[in-house]
């Protein structure tokens, strides 16, 4: 008996082969037709056009081994790896990592590197790439306001966990606005198995949007769905467009969903913006009960066309893009390590209980939770989000302090994952040691150098220097509050007491396993 695919599937696979073939051919053209001369920098694998093209495809699934090979072989001197559409030069010595971080934007550009990677100008629009004023707004307002916004962050975390987990029959108090409860009053509940990443994405998206656009929009299911899906689409479409030759990108952009995402967003956010604009024109920049959130800060700094509902909506979407997927995967890594290692739950609980009993929930309290902080930082060290960070494009020829020359047009970055797994910096680097950073803080005596939000040349998951992630202090407070809340409120474990679900690698990106599930129940002891 012969097996026949249904006609729709045959057609679909034809389209898929067509697209894959087209992207492969286009990638080859890109590779052959452009690129700076990098002959002076040693390459991993073949250096020929065709060989490097094949190496670029191998990189999609083997980036970790390829980068590690270069890191060990060239012993802290720069080397290059082939990506499908370009070469990337990787550095790892302390001097060169610091050189990357300190280089001015008009020499080694972080903005061009992000655009090169995910082509924001063809997805959420050229204004986002050419006028990234939201980055300054985040740097100046967000971190400064974290202390006063903390009660809202915590409130949203508590209520969104209760909503998304929906552990019925648990008798949890429904008044989550009172964030001072030490432990919520509970009744026992059954174990419930949930898809980890999708519940964490909702908690994070709601919490971020509580301080991006405020309550009640942050709880609107349509707004949450839009932001989760649009974030994913930015990465998916951006990565695809980046593999096309330059002259085809504008055309490809016409087939994306971004005009619809922005229209759908403006429909939900537009009325909020118009209401606030009315207040602004009546009372100026200060009025009673003026919301203290990202939307208000953006509205104050937006100039010209940027203050239209459509442009403000696009800004909010782009910050969601930077914030949601990254933070969700960071927490999900932590959840998997916790569920796979229940022996760590008790020491974390003891720390959280001790600190909260004495000081209550606040931003200041969070910095007292050394083990919680260390646990999350160790998850970023061993797993993280990217094998390469500090990505830059050389806008002109750049010379490092040791004389190494990076030609104009080259893409460059730091070999972050290899540095995070180097025994010169971390004892037994392959071992997950949740409280290693707490111990390093104690030994160092500085208190902050090894904390989650701190960046050093050996701890690069938020980048380093003046362009390091502007959201990292928010991230640290969110992640710590979430972990503290989870250990205080729930028991967690993996289905059938399985092993920790392995992370997924694609290109140099690292994702918490998107298929894995985690079991939750109300805390019993
Ligand atoms: C675990 C979560 C996160 C991780 C691991 C992360 C990591 C990073 C890294 C590595 C960079 C590039 C830094 C560099 O090139 O030197 C970056 C940039 C950026 N991040 Fe984050 N991030 C996270 C969450 C967030 C959040 C919550 C926000 C917003 C509230 C945010 C906003 C941004 C923005 C706007 C940039 C671009 C900065 C620029 O162009 O100068 N990130 N992030």
Automatic annotation (TrEMBL):
It comes from the Eukaryota. Heme binds at residue 469. GO terms for molecular function: heme binding; iron ion binding; monooxygenase activity; oxidoreductase activity, acting on paired donors, with incorporation or reduction of molecular oxygen. Its cofactor is heme. The keyword tRNA processing does not apply. Belongs to the cytochrome P450 family. The keyword Transmembrane helix applies. This is Cytochrome P450. InterPro entries: Cyt_P450, Cyt_P450_E_grp-I, Cyt_P450_sf. The chain crosses the membrane at residues 12-30. Keywords: Heme, Iron, Membrane, Metal-binding, Monooxygenase, Oxidoreductase, Transmembrane, Transmembrane helix.
